[in-house]
Design a protein that fits this description.
mainly alpha; single chain; about 270 residues
C-alpha cells in the first residue's frame, strides 16, 4: 500500500489505541473468556433452536408459536445481548460510567471520511470480490458444511433459509431484527470485543472477523460459508477505528449486497 493510499484508508486514533492498551484482556482466563464471548450468544441460539428436544421443551414452557419463539431468540441475541452485555461488563467489571462506556464502544465519535468515502470504496471492493466467491466458492462450502452432522439447521428452523427469515415474522420483529443486526452486532463485535482481544496484536482483526462469522452457528451452512468475506468487517474497523463506517457497511451488506449478487449471478 502506497503512502497516499495508506493515508486515505487508515485513520490514526490515539484514544482508540489507548483504550485497547488499557482494557484488553491480560490474564489467560480473561483472554479465553473474551474469545469465547464471541461465540457464546450464537451457541445459546443454537441450543434453543437447533437441538430438537431443547427446542420442544422451550416451546412448551414459553407458550409461543414456533416462529415467534425463534424470532424472539433472534431478537434476544442480536438486539438485547449485543447491546446490554457490553454495557453491563464495562460498568461492573471495568468500572466505566455510562458516558465512558459509550466512548469505549465508539459511539461518541463520528468518522465522516470513513463513513462517506472509505466505506463506499470498501463496499464496492467487497461486492466485486464477492462475485466470483459467491459463484464458485460459496455453493461448495455451503454443501460441505450442511453435510456435517449438527450444522444443518433442522427442517422447522426459520433460519434454514436466511433470505426468507423476515417474511415469517411480524413487521415490528423485522425492524428490531434489522436494527439489531447491523447496529448491535457491530457494537458488540467490533466496538467492544475487538478492543478486548487487542492482545492478539496485528492478528486481532482477523481472529475477530473469523469468530464473528462462526458465531452464526445456528445457520452455519450459509453463514460459515461466508467467513472468507467477513474479513472485510474486521479490516474496515482496523483501518478506521470507528464504529459508524462499520454500521453503514453492515447495513449495505444486509440490504443492498444480496440484491446485487442475486441480479448479477441469476
Amino acid at each position: 500500500m502506497t503512502e497516499r493510499l495508506r493515508r486515505f484508508f487508515i485513520r490514526e486514533d490515539a484514544e482508540y489505541d489507548a483504550l485497547v492498551k488499557q482494557y484488553q484482556a491480560r490474564t489467560l482466563a480473561g483472554k479465553i473468556f473474551y474469545l469465547f464471548m464471541h461465540l457464546l450468544p450464537g451457541l445459546l441460539a443454537y441450543v434453543l433452536i437447533n437441538i430438537p428436544p431443547v427446542h420442544a421443551a422451550a416451546l412448551r414452557l414459553s407458550g409461543l408459536s414456533d416462529n415467534m419463539f425463534q424470532g424472539t431468540c433472534l431478537i434476544g441475541v442480536v438486539f438485547v445481548w449485543h447491546a446490554v452485555v457490553p454495557l453491563l461488563v464495562l460498568r461492573w467489571v471495568d468500572k466505566l460510567s455510562f458516558q465512558e462506556s459509550l466512548s469505549f464502544l465508539g459511539l461518541r465519535k463520528f468518522d465522516g471520511k470513513g463513513f462517506l468515502l472509505v466505506m463506499p470504496v470498501m463496499f464496492v471492493a467487497f461486492t466485486v470480490i464477492s462475485l466470483p466467491y459467491m459463484k464458485y466458492v460459496f455453493p461448495a462450502l455451503t454443501e460441505w458444511i450442511a453435510a456435517i452432522p449438527g450444522l444443518n439447521p433442522p427442517q422447522y428452523s426459520i433460519f434454514r433459509d436466511p433470505s426468507g427469515v423476515y417474511s415469517l415474522l411480524p413487521m415490528w420483529f423485522v425492524g428490531l431484527g434489522l436494527v439489531g443486526n447491523f447496529l448491535c452486532e457491530e457494537l458488540y463485535f467490533h466496538g467492544y470485543l475487538m478492543k478486548k482481544i487487542g492482545f492478539l496484536g496485528p492478528w486481532t482483526w482477523v481472529v475477530n472477523s473469523v469468530l464473528f462469522g462462526l458465531y452464526h452457528v445456528w445457520q452455519a451452512p450459509t453463514t460459515w460459508a461466508l467467513t472468507g468475506l467477513v474479513l472485510f468487517f474486521g479490516l474496515l474497523m482496523q483501518w478506521r477505528k470507528n464504529l459508524y463506517p462499520l454500521i453503514a457497511f453492515h447495513f449495505l451488506v444486509n440490504i443492498v449486497w444480496g440484491v446485487i449478487i442475486g441480479a448479477v449471478l441469476q
